[in-house]
Structures are given as C-alpha cells and as structure tokens.
C-alpha cells in the first residue's frame, strides 16, 4: 500500500494524535520530527505494517485481525497465481 496523508490522518488515536508504536511502523522516531507526514507520504508499506499501524490507533480488540495469517495467505495466493501463469505460458508454447 502507498502511504497517503489521508490514510495517516484517518488512523489517529482517539486523542487525535499518533503513538510511538504507530510511528515506529512507519520508520519514524518518537517524538515525531516536523514534516514526518510529508516525508513518509508516497512510500510503500507492507500489509503487516499497514494493519499494525491501523490497529495501534486504538481500534477495539474485537476488530483486530491476525495479520500474520493474512500475509501468509497472500503469499500462498501469489504462489498459486505464479504457478497458474506458468501453466498458461507452457500451454501456449505447445
């Protein structure tokens, strides 16, 4: 996912800020330096870090998802897609 200012702003804590753990997900030290939002905007972030950042904003525990399971499933699906792509290319050659 590409980090946007809108996404950062939408994932503030209930107090209207960001905590040290959230900033750490984005590679920003605590306290956040001036211009940090502009600096991280446009960077790519993994699904794991995206979900961690969102969860650390203070969502209720019942809404938390198992990020590791999701990333594992994504890798499995990517592998299957690659295998299917190879099969299609092989069939075209024959």
Commentary on this structure:
The chain is mainly alpha-helical and 94 residues long. It folds into 2 domains: 1-63, no CATH class; 65-94. The protein has 5 helices and no strands. Helix 4 packs antiparallel against helix 5. The N and C termini lie far apart (38 Å). The model is unreliable at 60-64 (pLDDT under 50).
Keywords for this structure?
mainly alpha, 57% helix, single chain, 94 residues
Domains counted in the coordinates: how many?
A: 2
Low-confidence stretches: 60-64
Mean pLDDT figure:
87
* Assembly form of the protein: single chain
Helicity, in percent?
55-70%
In short:
This protein is mainly α. It has 5 helices and no strands. The longest helix is centred in the C-terminal third of the chain and has 27 residues, at 67-93.
Question: What is this structure's SSE topology?
Answer:
Layout: H1 5-10, H2 20-25, H3 36-40, H4 47-56, H5 67-93
Helix pairs in contact: 4-5
